[in-house]
Amino acid sequence: MPAANQMCVLIVDDQMSMRGITRNALHQLGITKTFEARDGNDALRQLDGVNLILSDWNMPDMDGLTLLRTVRSRPATRSMPFIMCTGNASSDFVQSAIKAGVNNYIVKPFDFNTFKKRIEQVTGALTQ
Hints:
Largest sheet: 5 strands, parallel
CATH superfamily: Response regulator
């Protein structure tokens, strides 16, 4: 993974306020190159140059699990790191995401240290 200031992260969430919270947390980590999408369909149009996807699960049109499955089904994005960020900590949800190929899972609301840890478990230690 590139240094934090070289990473590009796609934030996928139907709630503008949650996209803002996530973007601010990424900025604190030194990740300032972000794109935002309001659902899975919007996200699929923005994958070029993305190093990591942070996606909500529950969204209209295309939810996060369907987005994950679509990303994993395409050769160009199959290995793209994908973290599900959702308020649902149900073991059934987590297992569905794992079966679909998620790299990590963050339960909202999250604290900064947990957020950082989950990202670094996927990307490796972030450097400035």
